[in-house]
Design brief:
alpha+beta, four-stranded antiparallel beta sheet, 3 helices, 26% helix
């Protein structure tokens, strides 16, 4: 699944919304994102620079709620259920996952 962040949407909220849509549950029923990654640090990583210019490049991948998530440039998310991932993809990510 591909997810494009809205203009004023934080990366952390986009992750929660996209995972809940992929799994088919309410966002509030997911394991807290903070159990996997610091939401404030995640947002800051892809936020605009101090002078207001957008950051370019950057990629981060992690596992959250049974989904392999890759954030590209703070603009797009790619989500894949762990059972759909190849063994090579699983080996690169933490083994802990949570299912809704």
């Amino acid at each position: 699944m591909e997810y494009e962040l809205g203009a004023d949407e934080s990366v952390s909220m986009a992750v929660v919304r996209a995972v809940s849509a992929l799994i088919g549950c309410e966002p509030c029923s997911l394991q807290p994102l903070g159990n996997v990654v610091d939401p404030d640090a995640l947002d800051a990583l892809f936020d605009r620079q101090y002078d207001g210019t957008p950051r370019t490049g950057g990629r981060l991948s992690f596992v959250y709620n049974g989904c392999h998530i890759t954030i590209n440039n703070g603009e797009y998310l790619t989500l894949q259920m762990l059972e759909d991932c190849s063994y090579d993809e699983r080996d690169r990510e933490p083994t802990e996952s949570y299912v809704c």
